[in-house]
Amino acid sequence: MDRVGLVGLPNSGKSSLFNALTGGDAVVASHPFSTVETEVGVAHVPDPRVDALGKMSESRKIVYAGFEVVDIAAIGKGGEKGDALGSRFLAGVREVDALCLVLRSFEDENVPGDTDPLASLAVIELELALADLATLEQQLTKKRSRVAPVDPAIAAGLKAAPAAVAVLEQGTPLYRSSLHAGDREALKPFFLLTDKPTMAVTNVGEDRLADSDELVAAVEKEVGSRVDVLAVSVQLEAETARLDPAERAELLEGLGLGQGALVRVAQAAFDILGKWVFLTTGEDESRAWIFRSGAKAPECAGVIHSDLQRGFIKADVIRWDELLEFGSLAAARSKGKVRLEGKDYVVHDGDVLEIRFNV
Ligand SMILES: Nc1nc2c(ncn2[C@@H]2O[C@H](COP(=O)(O)OP(=O)(O)O)[C@@H](O)[C@H]2O)c(=O)[nH]1
Ligand SMILES: [Mg+2]
Question: Nearest residue CA, atom 28 of ligand 1?
Answer without folding.
Answer: 205
